[in-house]
Amino acid sequence: MRDILRRLEEKRAAARAGGGQRRIDAQHAKGRLTARERVELLFDPDSFEEWDMFVEHRSTDFGMGDQRTPGDGVVTGYGNMNGRLVFVFSQDFTVFGGSLSEAHASKICKIMDQAMKVGAPIVGLNDSGGARIQDGVASLAGYAEVFQRNVLASGVVPQISLIMGPCAGGAVYSPAMTDFIFMVKDSSYMFVTGPDVVRTVTHETVTHEQLGGAVTHTTKSGVADLAFENDVEALLQLRRFIDFLPPSNREKAPVRATPDPGERAEPSLDSLVPVNSNTPYDMKELIRKVVDEGDFFELQPDYAGNIVIGFGRIEGATIGVVANQPMVLAGCLDIDSSRKAARFVRFCDCFNIPILTFVDVPGFLPGTNQEHNAIIKHGAKLLFAFAEATVPKVTIITRKAYGGAYDVMSSKHLRGDVNFAWPSAEIAVMGPKGAVEIIFRSDIGDAEKIAQRTEDYREKFANPFVAGARGFIDDVIMPSTTRRRVARSLAMLRDKKLENPWKKHDNIPL
Amino acid sequence: MFKKILIANRGEIACRVMRTAKAMGIRTVAIHSDVDADARHVREADEAVLVGPAPSAQSYLNVEAILRAIAQTGAEGVHPGYGFLSENAAFAAAVEKAGARFIGPSPSAIAAMGDKIRSKQLAREAGVSVVPGGVESVADEEAAREAAAAIGYPVLVKASAGGGGKGMRLVRGEAEMADALRSAAHEAKASFGDERVFVEKFIEHPRHIEIQVLADSYGHVIHLGERECSIQRRHQKVIEESPSPLLDAKTRAAMGAQAVALAQAVEYRSAGTVEFIADRNKNFYFLEMNTRLQVEHPVTEKVTGLDLVEWMIRIAAGERLTLKQKDVRLDGWAIEARLYAEDPTRGFLPASGRVVRYREPTGAGVRIDSGIHEGAEVTVHYDPILAKIVTHAADRDGAVALMRHALDSCCVRGVVNNGLFLGAVMANPRFQSGDISTAFIQEEFGAAFDPAKAGKEQLAVLVAVAATLHHRLHARDAAIGGGQNAQRVASGAEWVVLANGDSHKATVAETAGGHAAVTSSDSHEVIGEWRFDDPVFRGAVNGRPVAVQVERIGLAYRLSHDGVRLDLQVLAPRAAELAALMPAKKKQDMSRFVLSPMPGLLSSLAVAVGQDVKAGEAIAVIEAMKMENVLRAERDGRVAALRAKPGDSLAADQPILEFE
Q: What is the reported pTM?
């Protein structure tokens, strides 16, 4: 019996050793942790339950028959994050470069299936050279099995990808279909074709980092949601992030106890909106002063900065925040910001997270660049997302809400549950200057007349009361009371029930 | 007595004057520019009148508009505060002509003392000891050299109409005279519209000590002791105290008598200040007389128990000064620290922005004169003073201790400020010893202040507080999933605190009143209220009251306390072990770029593309807060590209040019 127990220990030791000390040292030298170290940091101490430690690949070609490492390059299982169940797979770059074999893929699929069954989030820690070439088409089949599960799990359990090393070729499409992608700066990259192929085909010379590094994907492409300095920071921040999310679409997000009273007033918000309606202000100050403890977990902060998205809490319960940012492009909607916010709104709607929208939007960004790149379809995504969402929706118009953009930004007409406006709100078809130049085209030569007309228009339309008279606005509120009004609205909406008509699925303008 | 007065000023001083006026039952009228419509002084006034757009020249210096405001509101008196029109004889005369009383000295006294050369002559005649030199403005370089030779180098070249250090140059030898003369005259012209300069003896290790006088309209003058204002940067006062650590009773009496004599000589009325410069041997020389309420008047109020503004108002209303010199008693020690919107880590360059969070210090012995509120906008148009913190205790050590705690509790977020620097001055042993001079800041802190420099005890406190705060947050987060996890975590845990590249082990456990953080070297019991989002942790460490400012930057805790600011990370021991494997990231190389050190207007560029520049050479002039700041190259190099052009408004850290 003792021998049998010792054999188990030996097997386990072999699995834990991964690709051996030399490769572990090489991994550390690159500033990366090993697959197991990452799992250790991700979960509460001693909570990780590993599965499939003894799985090995079945390939015999190209000398692979005598190269077997238990676990086959990926660590899988489940554990707790602050006491909550989460499933994980963590690719081990020290074993065959973390490459994906048929067996490797089947391990990932197993925990995905289990996560779906019990309703718990799936976290993927990606660090893989790509397909196991020696495995041939079986490896490609493995990818597809994972892709299929990503799709089926989408909207059922939250899926988060943390890219901690290479992720290239077909491999990118698994993270691409998860809900959130986080990356580590200087040590991770994602691209469909690498710099070598790029050089051959297009004659562009580009580094890995420039082509698909963390900075590129969080500033230029918008593929990734956040970039972190190193593995430790990324894993600890991921723990913080998971705290905001519900385990599945069957449950609500957890409530975190807070000493921050829902009735808290913020007198300084009364002076947030500048007197001059063209002067920008920082919408994030408003967000931080409204959410619990000023704790706002922003996503994609460096991409399409004209819209701000992220999670916060009100009276302990998670909310998703969408806000126009007047500091960037005057807060207008464009292709990037529409796509960014639309996907976020849909995530919130999938997972029962109420949406709090702050509106200061002068309209859509004009230009051939926007039109020729299909702002019509991309803008429609955000409109579609807000319109189909059935979770509680609370909207505050702080200043401008002009034209179609007013409709888009979670307006009353898109089944907004509670729509408030600050006294500084201007809800109109367009700004006073543009409106006057159309309505009173004949007066354009006469500066004095135009000025008077503009003033009249401003007086008449640049306020929240016209919309209020129609009931499009439920109330005009003092900015300082915003948190209280939002908290009460969300409390009232806690058991909101609303269903869309049955359909196989909708046909969002992709 | 007046029924209503107008305060022709803004910011903290306007608020401070109104406080006394209200206590006296007098209604108050504020004036303001359009950008100040929501400023604190407007909020606190009974009435407010818009006097013009943002630039001072069109608003707070706009005499016509202010006279209109006086007429419109029926104000019977006008308090000018300090700065702006406070020492403008024409304004004082115009106010009186308009039928209101000017709450300050007579126009003739203002005029007599406003001219540096004339005031020195008057002082000499009144038997006041004056700095050798400086009787007349110098016509040219030769005259300046002659004057300097007669006095002996080093000498100062100063603007005749100057103040605040503008148009002032130190000349150590004859060779430096020509340059100094030219630049001083130029700056004098730009600042005061008067290019006359004079030469006077430069006092080594000078201390700035001034005497407060109070005089009524009937020839009765007393003095209220001294203030020492030696802690200065860019010739502007930062910290003031009363009494001075230098003076003895005899010197104080001698200075007081001279100050009173001068005030009598010009038939002074109201509050005024006679400024002296003193050397180590308590020799003192007259500098100038300020014919207004000084910024630092609160320290005198604290030690004398008098309200100077109240006396100014009473005297202006024609009342007699009923106090006799023998009634004046100096009780204890008072210190004032000026909270400026400026960046001490960048040579005290001015800052601006919106005050996102604001918490004032409170408690016995602490007074705050503030001109801001949470949500206020600090613009580039005016003096960068935000507030003054004044502490009063039985002795100097007590006042310093109170000030250290008050500064730690005073929180201004959103606008870069010198609060931490003031704390560092208070924590400085040389300051505490009283061995100070006007060169103190330069000598102790150099060009830039490094807030990460921590002493042993400061570091120990910050490590203990960081570990405790993190432990509390961690325990709360652990409870999010319910179950046994939370209880296991809450009972106690081991942590590693990373600060300044070092790691410190700390075990945190709950105690009856709070938490004990035990590190390898010592044990700190940390007790206090902190609601996870409070910008200031207030509590006690080992029984000593402590305030620590807390900001959460990503995973780190940015803690500020006692002149030290550190980013601390608190990790579980295993996480710390793994974190040690993480490579240190290289900062992006910005040395090729010359960045704007502050928000402001690029008024000129002295270089062109392709030009070779030597380190120290002037590159550009940036105008901010009424100051022309010359930007110099920090290295040699050839200019590759210009990233901004004259007339551009610059944000802080915006590239101005790029070297090859």
A: 0.89
